[in-house]
Structures are given as structure tokens and as C-alpha cells.
Amino acid sequence: MPINTTVSILGEREHGQDVRTNNVTAVQAVANIVKSSLGPQGLDKMLVDDIGDITITNDGATILKQLEVEHPAAKVIIELSQLQDREVGDGTTSVVILAAELLKRANDMIKDKLHPTNIITGYKIAAREACKYVEKNLATKVDIVGRESLINAAKTSMSSKVIGPESGLFSELVVDAMNWVRTIGSTGEYKYPLKAVKIAKCHGQSSLESKLIKGYAVQMARVSQQMPMRVKNAKIAILDMNLNKFRMQMGVQFVVNDPKNLERIRERELNILKERCEKVIKAGANVVITTKGIDDVAAKYFVEAGVFAMRRVDKADIRRIAKSTGGQVITTFANNDGEENFDPAWLGTAESVFEEPVGDWDYCFIEGFTKASACTILIRGANELLIDEVERSVHDSLCVVKRCLESGYVVAGGGCVESALSIYLEDFARSLGNKEQIAVAQFAEALTVIPKVLAMNAAFDASELVSKLRVAHSTAQTSNDPKYQNLKHCGLDLLNGKVRNNLQAGVLEPMNSKIKSLKFATEAAITILRIDDMIKLAPKQEELPQRH
Ligand SMILES: Nc1ncnc2c1ncn2[C@@H]1O[C@H](COP(=O)(O)OP(=O)(O)OP(=O)(O)O)[C@@H](O)[C@H]1O
Ligand SMILES: [Mg+2]
Fold first, then answer.
1. Phi/psi class of residue 408: alpha, beta or left (left: φ > 0; alpha: ψ in -120 to 50)?
2. What is the pLDDT of residue 467?
3. Cα 480 vs. chain centroid, distance in angstroms?
4. DSSP 121
5. Domain ranges in the chain?
6. Would you call 258 a catalytic residue per the annotation?
7. Residue 61 Cα, ligand 2 centroid: separation in angstroms?
């Protein structure tokens, strides 16, 4: 019998140029969705999911997360924007547009018979050079402009969002919040933990009523109205357990012969709860917070002792409160000997804990932390959709301010970095005497997509504006005259359709965000570029049992 030597693949197989063109088309389609939302004059998107929930947003990562995409290459790009969101927080739209442009140009080069390996190497060289150039020549130290520059960086990230017109107020809130939560890390450097800033959303009033609370807010009322409204010098017991009437575990059975014993069992069950509450009170706690329940009986003991108690608090909140107050989250009172006790060292401390109504809701506030500070940005707004979008924008800005503070460097925005790099890389390409030259030159040209889209979205003549911008950067890089040196900070003024010094105009972005976006976009483009075969396996046919 002849042996079949060919390998048969069950499924569809796409190969070579076909798969590349398909991938590029899919990525282009994704980028086109977010293109119109880039920049201060960018527009928003309304997304409706299968349940009918509506999201209105300008944030690239949020738009793409909601899309249901099947194409694997498009999924890589969506992953890219999520990565940017996690790592940097802002710039999720730009990174997708840049990656798509890089891919499109790579595909054209391959059609012109350049090998993908040369392109990949060229792109890698270009990205590396670009990052070096930004660090060396375009970055400005935050200290030189101080708080003003942080506010400007926050404003820039907000300018494209719904809170753009109110960015004056919000940028102050964001910068104050980030400065407030500053801690010193183990190696002596300053840290700005994002999680220490809680964003609380409260429906009602205008967004201009939003404020910063220098304490931690939890949206809930205390367990009983008879508890004190305010506790000073709070000693906080932080629990992750139930304070309900004790019950035997499921499956445990008692055989009771005497009805009196039944009563004793009930009594003991109640006593266990009583003892637990007493242990907490005896340890000196005047505030009790738990992620689980506190029943009426336990509440009674706490009321009698003048303890302020909160129940069903979110786990994330509990963890943050524990960190800031220096307390411990307790999941059980039992010790190694099988006995129960509550150690006073487990208590966290704060200056005050109190309840106050905000809008239609009750909020509990914890202020004056002893260990690490935490704060809350309370967002007000007319409707839920608006508040959600404000939250996303504030989150973006918090990330931007954090990056500025941590790295200490900013760059000018509005297409400044991209144009400067495009001029520099064009020049640099000419110094390469190999095939990678073409790829580096194309990389340089691809970068201009950002100023082009920015200008296009602001309804200006993109080609003309970008040409002017390139002239400015070319002059800055080629001339030795110091008076032209400032031209290297030129970017677009999207209100008047002009080229201006964006460093002076206060359009700033953190340097390491820009560098990371460049790296991420290049990596994503390369990942997709490397694919030259796509095999979609056919699902396995399950054999049905034969019926006789
Ligand atoms: N006032 C301004 N003048 C000129 N350009 C601006 C101004 N404000 C922001 N930009 C530019 O707009 C771009 C950012 O736009 P946008 O915030 O819409 O997108 P993104 O940051 O890439 O993504 P996202 O914010 O959705 O995560 C940056 O290139 C920035 O330099
Ligand atoms: Mg942004």
C-alpha cells in the first residue's frame, strides 16, 4: 500500500502576501475606528453593548475594549491599547494609530520586494534611535517649570476629553491628589501609588462641584443610626469576616435528648458572637470595618460601647485602609491554640472617622492617616454616562501626573516629538548603507501620521500644517544658531491652525509615556509583521454514538 507523504491540514490556510494584506486591512480597520477621536478636537464614540448599556467615551482603550473583534491581528492591536492603558494610562489612541501606520508601510515595502526581516531590523533600529533622541534632545526637566508643568501635563491629557473645558479645576485636583499620596519607597525614592487615590462617583450637581477630600471615602452609612456620627482618635479594627450569630458548619448534626440543652446551644451560639465583639471592644477599637456582615445583635454591642461600625465594605477599600492606617486585615480571631483573641496591635489608627451625606448618599470618611496617606476625588455630574467618562479622564490624568513626577521629564505635545523624530530619523537613515535604510526612512514618515490626524480632526489642512511643522524642526536640527534652538519644541496649535512653541504654550506630555508608546507600537507592528502563515484549524468532528 503506498504511504501518503503529504501532510494534510484540516482547516483553512492563508500564506505569504495574502495573510499580510489581510492582517494590515484588519488593523487598519481598527485604527480607523479610533482615528477621529485623537486630539483636543477629536470626537467621542457612543457604544451600545448587547444588553443595551451605553458608554460614551473618547478613550481609545475603552472604545477598543468594547469591540467584539474576531480577526487575530486586530486582537493584537486591541491588546496593544490595553497594554498602553495598563502601563502608561494615556496615549492609547495614538499608539494604535502609529502601529497601524507602521504596518501599512511595511506591507507596501514587502510588496516592493523588501524582505520582512530587513524591515523588522530597520524598525527596531529606528525605535531605538528615536527613544535615545527624545531622552537626549527633546526632554525638559519638570523642576524647571515646577507645579505649573504638572498642571499643564494634566490639562493636555484632559483637553481631548469631556472635561476639557473644566480642565482648570480638574488638573488642580489631580496634581494635588498625586502630591498628597506621595510616599518614600524602600530605596529612598518618592513613590506615587495610583491606588491611594480613590475616585468616588456621586450623581448630582455639576462636574464643577467635584472636589478633593484629603481622606478616604467609602460610599455607605454606618450600621446603626445610634452609633456616634464622628469618632476622634480612631482605633480601627479591620475585619474580613462575619460578625453574625455563630452557626455550626453545614453537615454538623446534634442529637439532643433534653429540650433544655437546645436552649443552651442557642445561648452558646449567641455568646460566641458576644465574646468576639467584646474582644474587639476590649482591645480598644472604636471603629470596626468589615467586608462581610454585622448583624443586629453585634450592632447592639457596638452601639452600647459607642463604636462606629461599617459593614460590607469593598475588599479593595479595606486593603487600602489597612495600608494607610497601619492596621491588619483580620480573617479569623483564632490563634494556634484554638482559642480566640484580638491583639490591640492589629488596630489601625487615624485622626477621625465620620459619616456625612454627599448628594443623596451617605459617605463615611476616614481622615488623618498615620502610615501612608490616601485621598479621594469626589466626582459630581449630571448623569451616569458623563460621570463614567469623567472618571476615565481623571484616571488618565492621574497616570500622566504620576509619570511626570516619577520620571521628572516632560516633552512638548501636539505632534512635536513625532515631527522632530521624523526629521531626525530621515537624516539618520541616510547614514545607513544597507537595506534597513528604507525601513528607517519609512518609520520616520510613519511618525508624521500623529500630527496629520491631529490637524485633520481639527479641520485644518493637514499637509500644509505638517509641512510647516517639519520646516521648523528641520531648522532647529540643522542650524547651529542658538536662536533657532527653541524651534525644537514646536507643535501644533489646533485652535488657530498654526505652529507654535508648545513647551511655552503648556501642551506637555510625560517623556517616558512617549518613549513607551513608541516602543509598544513598534513591537506590536513587528509581531504582526512576522506572521506569514495563518492556519485556522477546523474544529474536531466529534464522533456521534451510532444508533442501532
Ligand atoms: N492643546 C493641545 N494642542 C495641541 N495638541 C494637543 C493639545 N492637547 C492634546 N494634544 C495632543 O493630542 C494627543 C492626545 O490625544 P488624545 O488624548 O485624544 O489621545 P491619546 O492620549 O493618544 O489616547 P487616550 O487619551 O484616548 O488614551 C497628543 O498627541 C497631544 O499632544
Ligand atoms: Mg489622552
1. left
2. 92
3. 42
4. H
5. 11-140+412-454+512-536, 215-372
6. no
7. 10
Query: Which one of the ligands is nearest to 412 CA?
Result: 1
pLDDT in tens, 109-166: 988 888 889 999 999 999 999 999 999 888 888 776 578 888 988 988 888 888 878 8
pLDDT of residue 445: 92
Known active-site residue 396 = yes
pLDDT for 546 equals: 67
Residues with CB under 6 A from ligand 1: 37-40, 42, 58-61, 90-94, 156-157, 159-160, 396, 413-414, 450, 454, 492, 494, 507, 509
Section 393-398 average pLDDT: 90
Say yes or no: do domains 11-140+412-454+512-536 and 215-372 share a fold. no
Q: Please tell me the distance from the alpha carbon of residue 465 to that of residue 90, in angstroms, as a whole number.
A: 25
Determine whether 121 is an active site residue.
no
What single string gives the DSSP state of each residue in 283-340?
TT-SEEEESS-B-HHHHHHHHHTT-EEE-S--HHHHHHHHHHHT--EES--B-TTS-B
> Is 59 designated active site?
yes
**What is d(CA 242, CA 331) in angstroms, rounded to the nearest whole number?**
9
In degrees rounded to 5, what are phi and psi of residue 350?
Answer: -150, 165
Domain 215-372 architecture: 3-Layer(bba) Sandwich (3.50)
Q: Write the secondary structure of 324-370 as one string of H (helix), E (strand) and C (coil).
A: HHCCCEECCCECCCCCECCCHHHCEEEEEEEEEEECCEEEEEEEEEC
CATH number for the domain whose boundaries are 11-140+412-454+512-536: 1.10.560.10
Centre of ligand 1 to C-alpha 385, Å, is: 21
Quote the pLDDT of residue 125. 92
- Which residue of the set 388, 396, 448, 522 is catalytic? 396
Residue with cell 452558646: 268
State in Å: Cα 133 to ligand 1 middle. 21
Helices 296-304/259-282 angle, 10° precision: 40
Q: Ligand 1 atom 21: the closest Cα is on which residue?
A: 91
On whether the CB atoms of residues 139 and 457 are closer than 8 A, the answer is: no
Average pLDDT (175-185) is 86
